[in-house]
């Protein structure tokens, strides 16, 4: 990975896509069931994010998805989360509620960070945004994460 890209979370999950024909969730790659290591990477140069999943069994990349501004992310159950784009509905079936919670916090952080725009990113700087994520992922915030759907509002002011 380029030096400007950092992992902001890691979780284990099965990567699924919704098959419109059969109306069922299926593995993202046929015959590729089982857990993958899912990371959200943050490019600190251009404030972009992507979801990358690597199969634990054979290290194959099963998903490399750019998180775009305005993406609709849905926590369907405590361990199954999904999002869609124009072509596909993606799903992650997590190994545990804790891993799902960690991932959703990072995903919502990514979406809120992009919604703030580049100007706010430059004002805060990568280090301060990464520190905010570290605080949000601490055990003390675990109960708040369970109760909240969205991260707290972020503003473009220096503190």
From TrEMBL:
Domain WH1 intervals: 1-114
InterPro entries, alphabetized: PH-like_dom_sf, WH1/EVH1_dom
Cleaved signal peptide residues: none
Superkingdom, natural source: Eukaryota
Main subcellular location: cytoplasm
Gene Ontology cellular component list: stress fiber
Gene Ontology MF terms in the entry: profilin binding; SH3 domain binding
CDD domains given in the database record: EVH1_Ena_VASP-like
SMART domains linked to this entry: WH1 (SM00461)
Subcellular location: Cytoplasm, Cytoskeleton, Stress fiber
GO BP field: actin polymerization or depolymerization; positive regulation of actin filament polymerization
PANTHER family hit by this protein: ENA_VASP-LIKE PROTEIN, SPROUTY-RELATED, EVH1 DOMAIN-CONTAINING PROTEIN FAMILY MEMBER
Protein known as: Ena/VASP-like protein
Taxonomic classification: Eukaryota, Metazoa, Chordata, Craniata, Vertebrata
